Amino acid sequence: MNKLIKPLLVFAFLGIFSACKDDEPPLPDNLAAFESTAQGFEGEQVEVKVVLSRAAEAATPISVSLTPTNLTYGTEFTTEPAATNNALALTVPAGATGVSFKILKKTGVLLDGDESIQFKIASVASPVLIGANTETKLSFKAIISDGTALQLNGLVGTESGASAGNSVFLDLSANTQIPAARDSWDLGFNSGAEFRVIINNTNVASAIEVNKNDINAVTAADLDITKLGLGQGAGTFALFDDVTGDLTKTVIKEVSATDADNKVYVINRAGGTGAVLPADQLYKVRVLRKGTGYTLQYAKLTETTFKTLDVTKDASFNFQFASLVKGTAVSVEPAKGRWDIVWGYSIYFTGTTPYAFSDLVFLNKYAGVTAAEVLTSTSTYDAFAESNLATITFSADRDVIGSKWRATTGTVGVKTDRFYLIKDSSGNVYKLRFISFHASDSGERGKPKLEYKLVKKAA
């Protein structure tokens, strides 16, 4: 009898296990779509993105057709990769969540502004399917978007979404997002009237002044390098730049016209955990004026000979950026008139304690962008219209949005009791709300979803 019972029990168990597997819900379709349905083109080139709703399991070919209006391929514009018979052959690599292509304006071409290109996703290899935004229109002029839905791409690679490697700059009127790796820069040189230099708050960098102006003479003996620790309860506000963006409160003092007054600073270029990099990975810097620009002197703390890098101000940007590791200028922020808010990781504070935050949203205050928070107890997002603006007071505070839009304790997820109004540097007013940012609200950490709509077009 026992010999019969055991096989029956095993069979029953396997049957239950099989049934449980069959009851697991299948993954939703993986959909390919354009990031937005309209995009403007200023400058010499622009990038258009096709995104998937989740990472591709295998390399996935995508065909995109293009239809120019008042333009001829090869005469006024080209693409990377090159098009064949008005079609682009793209491939999403395995494990990636999208692919992009570039449109480049030919050198010396003058356009009227009524030129455009209509792109359409013609086919996608199985098992990926074509999603909602199957077409996008690229206009060869600045556009004023009526609004769209976007998923910001804060991830550089496989890092945790809570410490996303990208800062993502968003231009509402152009429907464009531009990611920049946080670790790609160390110093930002003010392009305005003042000679000010910022350190990289998004990398939780810290700096200490050394009372010497001979950079070659500065060694680890000139400071206690453990005092550079920042994050997880370590460090003070004196180690990093003012989080509200007040340029009179930078760690590096205003660059003096008198060279002898400009001291040396030692920088721990990446922090957040309270730890400090080894001495041979710390940098010492000194900044001088050079005409209307700057000269950067820099070296590793253990080196006795410094290098130099000249930096020229450019009024179309808030800052010019430099990497100490590369010893070169690097591109980080878009031109100051081409972004409104930036999302990402940065040193901030909790009460009176420095604290590294994820998902911070800051305004482009230097370009005059302002914002306001609206609670849904006063007006719903859908109902808010231009007539409601009369009661709104806009703020120029850089952290009007900050971390207020989401909760990471208690009920984790986007706060649905509020949305935001953003007035860009041209005077266009948008209402914006976040949709998701965490698994708890059906989102993905490091890749928040949001939507926005035009409330009032600038006069």
From TrEMBL:
This is HmuY protein. InterPro entries: HmuY. Residues 1-21 form the signal peptide. Pfam families: HmuY. It comes from Dyadobacter psychrotolerans. It comes from the Bacteria. Keywords: Signal. PROSITE patterns: PROKAR_LIPOPROTEIN. CDD domains: HmuY.
